[in-house]
Amino acid sequence: MPLGQAAPIVLAAAAWAALYLRGCTRLRGTTRAVPGWRVACFLAGAALMTAALVTPLAELADEVFWAHMLEHLLLGDVATLLLVLGLTGPLIAPLLRLPGMGALRALAHPVLAFSLWAIDLYAWHVPVLHEAAVRHDTVHAIQHALLIGLGMNMWMALLGPLPKPAWFGNAAMLGYVAAVRLTGAVLGNVFVFGGGDAYGVYAPGEARWDISPAGDQVTAGAIMMVEGSFVTLGLLCWLFLRAARQTDERQRLLEYAREHGAELTDERAARAVAAGRGQELRERIDAGG
Prior knowledge:
This protein is mainly alpha-helical. The protein is built from 14 helices and no strands. Helix 7 (110-123) packs parallel to helix 10 and helix 12 crosses helix 13 (266-274).
């Protein structure tokens, strides 16, 4: 990418990271300090997003479909996942207090977040829209903005710090992960086994790189399926560890309440643990609440 086009992207990413680090500094030294691993995730996500847009991959993505697919998976799937992992409730609280930003809570509802993400994913692979994004920079920028924004929103519903519906427990989260991966896998299978030439816009690039349209399409679908498999495996491990940790923390809360003569039901303890408020409940028990 020419330096003149890359500079705004790099500056925007640097400004975004600076705002994030400023928020982390604000919370440093308090009980709400952002853990180091979350800071590392956010900065890695910002770096990965920048790299996908300013490295030679961005130019290659305009020539062959498999590179375009890789670029979009890095932007809308992996980088957004890392960015969301970097967020905490206290960190984004000032943002949520801005006028109109409360709508983020509604958008991050699991059903709506998944639906918007899935519609956007499939819509941009309709030939007329996909080829328009390749041919026109403005459409391409809109495509990237929606992939990133709705990708973050999709992960926020699962991993973000915003409040979640009471029904969205570990079993529902497992179903959410399965739905997200199945949605991507279906599209990947279409490209692998669908045959034909879905996007004629890549013909000059495919000729230049000596790859057939069918081969280009199969490679793109395979990349999508392999990436999805690794992300799914990671999420399943996270869910297993989360369930084990919550079970242990819930039991410790119940025992703590009994030791202090406080009444605490298993349901209330489970709700507190699921909401990340186990320590808060412990403090209320200490205070006699």
